[in-house]
Design a protein that fits this description.
Strand order of the largest sheet: 3-2-1-4-5
Bound molecules: adenosine-5'-diphosphate
Largest sheet: 5 strands, parallel
Shape: globular
Helix content: 40-55%
């Protein structure tokens, strides 16, 4: 049984994340989407809001669960029994950081293997921070974020569309 975790901030979840979830859930027996509860990061959505959006998004995927964790990813992996870390690579700019984190996690927990999915070309430019920035100025984010979450993002900026 392969049990993988796809960790991230998902603040908010985008089509890029959705694509990685769909593809990785087809590769591994079980996939946990793990929302990082990072108290030092100023987030737009609370962890509970992000978990609930991801649950809505993945409700038809039988082998996908959504959870949140704080502290070290490897500690959460030991607890949950996941041994594979799924990450998405958009561009070379992601590479250096991701390589470093993957190697550190492997040293901390030798059972942990990181597997990278290359981004779908359609979404290679897309990041949660770009979505937040566009939404803050009333830009059209319907091409970036699943339909059911678009208004929730605008609401955070008191924007009515
Ligand atoms: P983090 O704070 O961990 O970077 P993110 O929510 O920004 O959290 O990203 C989580 C993971 O999803 C990362 O591996 C990131 O590279 C990947 N990802 C984000 N946006 C995309 C995208 N458009 N296409 C593919 N992967 C993506």
């Amino acid at each position: 049984m392969s049990k993988a975790i796809y960790p991230g901030s998902f603040d908010p979840v985008t089509f890029g994340h959705q694509d990685i979830i769909e593809r990785s859930s087809a590769v591994f027996d079980e996939l946990i989407v793990g929302v990082l509860n990072n108290s030092t990061k100023n987030s737009l959505f609370s962890v509970d809001e992000r978990v609930s959006m991801l649950k809505e998004l993945t409700k038809n995927f039988k082998n996908v669960t959504v959870d949140s964790f704080d502290g070290l990813l490897v500690d959460y992996m030991k607890e949950s029994g996941a041994t594979i870390i799924v990450r998405g690579l958009r561009a070379v700019t992601d590479f250096e950081y991701e390589l470093q984190i993957a190697q550190t996690n492997h040293v901390e927990y030798p059972k942990a293997e990181t597997i990278f999915f290359t981004t779908n070309l359609k979404f290679s430019y897309l990041s949660s921070s770009v979505v937040r920035e566009f939404a803050a100025y009333g830009g059209d984010i319907s091409k970036f974020v699943p339909k059911q979450f678009v208004d929730r993002v605008y609401e955070k900026f008191n924007i009515k569309k």
